[in-house]
């Protein structure tokens, strides 16, 4: 069997498109075997983006990975993550200020 690269995210062993019903059947079977909460296949996309944003990845990079035409779309969809990042940034800034005030000779 010769692999045919069709630039697909999910495909058969030979690189051809996977039938959607087969994909979902396998996906839900794996969820059941892993004993994790059931989510939709599309939710994997949101999970991927949310984790990247939480890890501090540049929103432009996340936007490009998702295929959004503008980074604004990504930021609008994942604003809840942005709020968390804003809080983390404020804490980092506060810690830096406290560190600076404890050792004023350090720039």
Automatic annotation (TrEMBL):
Keyword line: DNA recombination
Signal peptide annotation: none
Alphabetical list of Pfam families matching this protein: Phage_integrase (PF00589)
KW Flavoprotein (keyword) present: no
InterPro entries: DNA_brk_join_enz, Integrase-like_cat_sf, Integrase_catalytic, Tyrosine_recombinase_XerCD
Keyword 4Fe-4S: no
UniProt domain Tyr recombinase: residue ranges: 1-91
Coiled coil ranges: none
GO biological process assignments: DNA integration; DNA recombination
Gene Ontology MF terms in the entry: DNA binding
Name of the molecule in the record: Integrase family protein
Upper lineage: Bacteria, Bacillati, Bacillota, Bacilli, Bacillales
């Amino acid at each position: 069997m010769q692999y045919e690269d069709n630039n697909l995210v999910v495909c058969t062993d030979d690189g051809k498109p996977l039938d959607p019903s087969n994909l979902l059947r396998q996906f839900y079977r794996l969820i059941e075997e892993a004993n994790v909460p059931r989510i939709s296949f599309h939710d994997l996309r949101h999970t991927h983006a949310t984790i990247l944003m939480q890890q501090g990845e540049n929103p432009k990079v996340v936007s490009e990975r998702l295929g959004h035409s503008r980074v604004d779309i990504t930021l609008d969809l994942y604003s809840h993550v942005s709020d968390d990042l804003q809080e983390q940034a404020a804490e980092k800034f506060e810690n830096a200020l406290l560190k600076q005030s404890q050792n004023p000779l350090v720039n």
